[in-house]
Amino acid sequence: MPEDRQFCTFLVDGLYFGIEVLQVQEVIRFQEMTRVPLASPVIKGLINLRGQIVTAIDLRRGLELADRPAGSLPMNVVVRTGDGAVSLLVDEIGDVVNVEPDTFERPPETLSGIARELISGVYKLKERLLLVMDTEKAVSLSGVAA
Amino acid sequence: MAELDDLVKEFLVESSENLDRLDQDFVALEKDATARDRLASIFRTIHTIKGTCGFLGLSKLESVTHVGESLLSKLRDGEMTATSDIISGLLAMVDAVREILASIESAGNEGNGDYTKIIANLTRLKDAAQGAVAPAAPAVPAAVAPAAPVAPAEAPTPDEHAGQAELDAPAAIAKAAGGDSGKSSDSPASGSANSAIRVDVGLLDKLMNLVGELVLARNQILQFSATLESATLTGSTQRLNLITTELQEGVMKTRMQPIGNVWSKFPRIVRDLAQLCGKQVRVEMEGRETELDKTIIEAIKDPLTHIIRNSVDHGIETPERRRTAGKKEEGRLYLRAFHEGGQVNIEIIDDGGGVPLDRVKAKAMERGLVSAEQAAKMTEREVLNLLFLPGFSTAEKITNVSGRGVGLDVVKTNIEKIGGTVDLQSKLGEGTTLRIRIPLTLAIIPALVITSGGDRFAIPQVSLLELVRLEPEQARKGVESIRGTPVYRLRGNLLPLVYLNKELRTDSADKKGDGTVNIVVLQADERQFGLVVDEINDTEEIVVKPLGKFFKGLTTFAGATIMGDGRVALILDVMGLAQKSNVVSDNKDRSVHEMESRTKDAGTSRQAMLLFRISDTRRMAIPLSLVARLEEFPRSAIEHSGGQAVMQYRGQIMPLISLSEALADTRLRLASPTQPDMQTGDTIQVIVYTKNDVSIGLVVDRIMDIVEECLNVQRTIVRPGVLGSAVIEKKVTELLDVESVIRTILPQAIEHADAKAA
User: The domain that contains B226 carries what CATH number?
Assistant: First the structure.
């Protein structure tokens, strides 16, 4: 059976998310961003990642949460996707955690809305729940609205 | 198995290169049947293909090439000379070989084409010669051995060939170019030129990308070093700068290909086409070595072929007609390529009949593209531009060559897609010149950097025409508005203004600004428009990077780039922006009008019409070019002077004419001076007409719109002051005869104006 998996964890408006480390290219601090007028509001802007132009998607907006309070800067979780690197903007970066496969559970049926789309499952950690983010879905969020 | 696949692949690549050269060789051979070195080269190519077929077990291909080879060996050994028949036969063979190769490439087998006819024909040709000369037929395989030394020997022993191989200049160039590419693909054992290697295009693309990154990094370092005062840093930055520039040039060169690679196909195309049309055409080329980026070469291949076909089919006349016109029977198609100002110019010149302007006009009217009146006034250039409209063809009958109406418009669109321009010049009876200008490369482009709403944007320089800066004082006067649509008068022509911050729905930083207006005049399609931006910064070489799939729906941006300070800036798509702001509509008619009004002075442009209403119900229109300004005044501003309603306007006394009274349905009131309409509202709308600095205000009920229409004026309802009627926007509209109205009501004003002019 599958072995322990490692997740890169982060917080978005108090929600504890994880993305499998293999999908994460890197985590970087806040970067200057160039906004893209007329684009979907989910797209926060473009950042220059060592000469590569990477689209930054605000997960708060993606999850239809309130905007980040003024003055607090988001962190970039750069994930690899089918269409190159994409940065997910999150509030705070957590540790890399090991999870045991048997603590996994499908998201409850009562979960609705956009969260249902993005959360592919839940790991029941000792002290809290780790929500597994479906990166491909998160990334495709932005395309629809545009 | 994989090894064999590789072998086949290499064979295909090599053969297709060789075949391209063959076409040129054959056409040259037709001109000079004794060019033995060419024969040798053709023979070798066919022989190589045949040899490899045997090895790869491609029996069909082998049988076709075998008989060709036998015939060629006779030609080469001088046992017979190449007649037009023989060349046609051999060309048919080359086509057959191509067909089989294509089938191998796509289907993996030789296909089921039947080539027995070709083989029989070639055998007949060969035997015919044998009967006539009847020497001992040399054993075919044995002929291979002497074949190889012929070409290499050619250079060191010029005396041997000098006499017989007096090839005309372009053919010689063709040979040089052909020989070049040929050497690398000849059997590797000959090792004549190992100075060239094949490189995967993907690798070159990657290199190009990396150099792009380097250029960006260099820009950043340059900016950074300027802030620090360190001699060592400045020194090494300068070196970095130089090396990067050189590297950039070098890598760009690796992607460059001579345009001759595309041209090499043309002699054959022209030959076939000329035979089909019963014409004689000679192709000359200059500047085959002119280099272009590979992607651009690919992009212009089809448009060029199309133009060439057009020239032969439409341009060059039949031998009889040429003789009557006192020209040489053989038409001349001249291809020229050269670099100029960072761009590549390609000219396709024929000495044919030129474009018959009358027929173009007639055709355009027949298709409803222009009205008779418009056509009568069009300049030569405008008529020629009609050829680029979709669905246009002057060919009287549809041949399988051209005349289907998918023509120059596609050529133009394709060329413009890569940032190029097409220009046509023609002289009746003397020929036509088509000039294409294209950028050297697409990856790194010069751009203008501007600021709007606090963000920087890059605008590709190709669409940039000029920059206009209006000081606050000028801006208040200069930027006028037609029913809320801002326009600016640029040297007498109305330039629609587009505010970038409004289009992008960003806040403009201009609010706190001093009211200065910066206008970037841009060209989109055939139209010009002014883009109002907050600030114009600088020009810079930028590396274009595509935007991801997230921005597919955004037509306003062509991509993004990284600026010197490391931040990302968006590249504006001028065409997309123009479409978004409705500067360019889908209606192609508008572009014709625009062409016309742009090339003529404003006084004669009649397509843009100002629509207004008088007496509540009468729709009227006057050419916008006659309108100096549109104004709205409080009714209280009307004064009277000697029974005439006047108004103080820009330091002058401007007489007012109420059009509803002047054109009242009864008759023109010749005697009594008119009074502006006093019934409704407390403002009046005035069309200011100016002639030689004398302004006259025409008072109307309401200014409605500005439209651009094909005017089809009907003079059935002629009244004083009305030129006639036309259907504008599906409603019958009267056309105002401004001069006659003024002349009737204010004769002294016109006299005054005329006197001023004199």
Answer: 1.10.287
With pLDDT > 70 as the criterion, what percentage of chain B qualifies? 78
In a domain, B597, yes or no: no
- pLDDT, one tens digit per residue, over B235-262 is 888 899 899 888 988 887 787 888 888 8
Q: Please, which pLDDT band fits residue B427 given cuts at 50, 70 and 90?
A: confident
Instruction: With CB atoms and an 8 Å threshold, state whether A143 touches B504.
Output: no
Q: Same domain for B283 and B380?
A: yes
Same domain for B399 and B466, yes or no, is no
Confidence tier at B718 by pLDDT (50, 70, 90): low
Arithmetic mean of pLDDT over chain B:
74
Q: Does residue B401 contact residue B277 with C-beta atoms inside 8 Å? A: yes
Q: Residue with structure tokens 């065409």?
A: B575
Out of B194, B212, B241, a domain closes at: B194
Which residues of chain B are within 8 Å of residue A30 when distances are taken between CB atoms? none
**B265 and B332, same domain (yes or no):** yes
Residues B682 and B753 in one domain: yes
For an interface test with B, give the residue of A31, A38, A49 to mutate (most B CBs within 10 A): A38
Whether B460 and B374 map to the same domain: the answer is no
Q: How many CB pairs under 8 A join A and B?
A: 66
Q: Nearest Cα to A123, choosing from A26, A27, A19, A22?
A: A19
- Does residue B39 lie within any of the structural domains? yes
Q: What is the total count of domains within chain B?
A: 5
B645: part of which helix (H) or strand (E)?
Answer: strand B644-649
Asked if residue B588 belongs to a domain, the reply is no
Inter-chain touch A86–B554, beta carbons under 8 Å:
no
Task: Tell whether the model's pLDDT for residue A78 goes beyond 90.
Answer: yes
Interface test with A, best of B208, B568, B579 (most A CBs within 10 A): B568
User: What are the E-state strand segments in B471-579?
Assistant: 479-482, 485-490, 493-499, 517-524, 527-533, 535-543, 557-562, 568-572
The answer to whether the Cβ–Cβ distance between B550 and A143 falls below 8 Å is: yes
B668 pLDDT band, cuts 50/70/90, is very low
Q: Are residues B454 and B432 in the same domain?
A: no
Q: Say yes or no: B230 and B271 in one domain.
A: no
Most A CBs within 10 A among B223, B503, B505, B550, hence the mutation to make, goes to: B550
Q: Which residue, of B407, B438, B469, is where some domain finishes? A: B438
Binding-site residues on chain B for chain A (CB distance < 8 A) = 212-213, 216-217, 453, 455-456, 504-506, 545, 547-554, 556-557, 560, 562, 566-570
φ, ψ (nearest 5 deg) of residue B538 = -170, 170
Q: Which of A88, A70, A82 is nearest to A12 (CA)?
A: A88
User: How far apart are alpha carbons B52 and B13 in whole angstroms?
Assistant: 13
Residues 6+ apart with CB under 8 A from B508: B452, B453, B499, B501, B534
The answer to whether A55 contacts chain B (CB < 8 Å) is: yes
Q: Looking at the structure, tell me whether residues B12 and B56 fall in a common domain.
A: yes
State the residue range of the domain holding B300.
Answer: 260-438
Residues 6+ apart with CB under 8 A from B388: B408, B409, B411, B412, B422, B424
What's this model's pTM, rounded to 2 decimal places?
0.48
Quick one: pLDDT at residue B616? 67
Read off the pLDDT band of B717 (50, 70, 90).
low
pLDDT, one tens digit per residue, over B480-499 is 888 778 888 888 788 889 98
CA distance B279 to B331: 8
| C-alpha–C-alpha distance, residues B293 and B281, integer Å | 30
